[in-house]
Amino acid sequence: MSTPSQTVGPYLSIGLPWDDGPEVVPEGTPGAIVLRGVIYDGNGVPVPDAMVETWQADADGRFDHPDDPRGRVAGFRGFGRCPTDEQGRWSIRTVVPGAVPGTGGRTQAPHIDVSVLGRGLLHRVVTRIYFPEHAEANAADEVLASVPEDRRDTLVAVREADGYRFDVRLQGDGETVFFEV
Amino acid sequence: MSLPVYRPDPEGTHPPLGSPGYRSTALRHPKQPLVLLPQMLTEVTGPLLGPGRLGEHDNDLTRQHAGEPQGQRIVVHGRLLDGDGRPVRNSLVEVWQANAGGRYRHTGDRWPSPLDPNFDGVGRTLTDDDGHYEFTTIKPGAYPWKNHDNAWRPAHIHFSVFGTSFTQRLVTQMYFPEDPLFAQDPIFNSIPDEKARQRMVSRFDLERTQPEWALAYEFDIVLRGRDASVFEDEEDDE
């Protein structure tokens, strides 16, 4: 009998952000990238009162968690959190995760799980970020394969000079694929 | 490879993303159907956030400034459990709230109730080995908002919890018993199932009141439970 979800409301930024929330990895970490984007509403207007949370494996595809059957790898927080600014922008510093085991002996393409919370969202919405360089792995990924082909590109980040861009469209043209978990 | 599987919550437990009574959902709820994401390794693991997140007085919102905040001092306590009744231990619980006059310490909150110089309305704590958490704070006030004609939010405290997996992440609001504002609040009433809605209402706890000091409310938070079965990766099972 679970407790229901409620919106974070417009004032989430007094309670949830941390100074180091956007730093999944410390500055200077080898291979660190910036992952950034804008959250848009159904009118294409940036959403200034939302927050992105990310959860991911480390560069070797491992989690610091007791339910990782390969054993936990201590020290990788794996979690990022960033509220959007006045222009709807968020960003985190992280590393590209390694491939992660899937079902039936398959391997999942490198991916990051994302929650978006905000005013007007009574429940978080969940999506995944994939990376454009992994075309072959993405093509074989069982989750991406379950998404209508013409919408798969909403789950693939865009390469930028210092990392990647991943915009979220909550509604309307180019609506991001959201998952039920 | 075997992984835990988290049960879905019963229909009606969580609000629909599109909830016309709460106007801000109109342009923010996805219109395409959600795609089912099987629970794989990324979903059954999750951030385990512990003591490193806490500062002094984070669990006592009345002691974060030199002076005492205005309002009715209360103790809010309860347990963080999963759907099988198991305590979620040593886990981060975050809260934020309005002050006694219903005003948030936020630049966007402009309603003309005074800010309290001695109240930030932000707290954090960890659950103990039994899943218990406890905060000392001030009972928040109700406040008006512009959702509909003469709209008021019932007094509430925002809670954020993580559980042990990405699937268990939950943000909710704790309400106070018998609030006359429930009937007109579209956020409270966005929960379709009446019994589920009542699980957001705390219980007045006379036993935990502190004489000449604080009233007390109990609020348990229950996250998705694990299925008895586990996900088995047949090719690894030889």
Automatic annotation (TrEMBL), chain A:
Pfam families (UniProt xref): Dioxygenase_C
Class of the enzyme per the UniProt entry, highest EC level: oxidoreductase
Protein name, entry field: Protocatechuate 3,4-dioxygenase alpha subunit
Family the entry assigns: Belongs to the intradiol ring-cleavage dioxygenase family.
Family annotation (InterPro entries): Intradiol_dOase_C, Intradiol_dOase_core, Intradiol_RC_Dioxygenase, Protocat_dOase_a
Domain of life: Bacteria
EC number(s) recorded for this UniProt protein: 1.13.11.3
Single GO MF annotation: protocatechuate 3,4-dioxygenase activity
Residue span, Intradiol ring-cleavage dioxygenases domain: 17-172
PANTHER family to which the protein is assigned, alphabetical: DIOXYGENASE, PUTATIVE (AFU_ORTHOLOGUE AFUA_2G02910)-RELATED, PROTOCATECHUATE 3,4-DIOXYGENASE ALPHA CHAIN
Entry keywords, A to Z: Dioxygenase, Oxidoreductase
Automatic annotation (TrEMBL), chain B:
An example molecular function term from Gene Ontology annotations: protocatechuate 3,4-dioxygenase activity
A Pfam family: PCDO_beta_N
PROSITE patterns according to UniProt: INTRADIOL_DIOXYGENAS
Start-end of Basic and acidic residues biased regions: 54-66
Keyword presence, Oxidoreductase: yes
Intradiol ring-cleavage dioxygenases domain span: 76-104
Keyword vocabulary terms for this entry: Dioxygenase, Oxidoreductase
Source superkingdom: Bacteria
InterPro entries: Intradiol_dOase_C (IPR000627), Intradiol_dOase_core (IPR015889), Intradiol_RC_Dioxygenase (IPR050770), PCDO_beta_N (IPR024756), Protocat_dOase_b (IPR012785)
Region annotation (Disordered) ranges: 1-24, 49-70
EC number: 1.13.11.3
Family: Belongs to the intradiol ring-cleavage dioxygenase family.
NCBIfam families: protocat_beta
Protein name: Protocatechuate 3,4-dioxygenase beta subunit
Species assigned in the record: Amycolatopsis magusensis
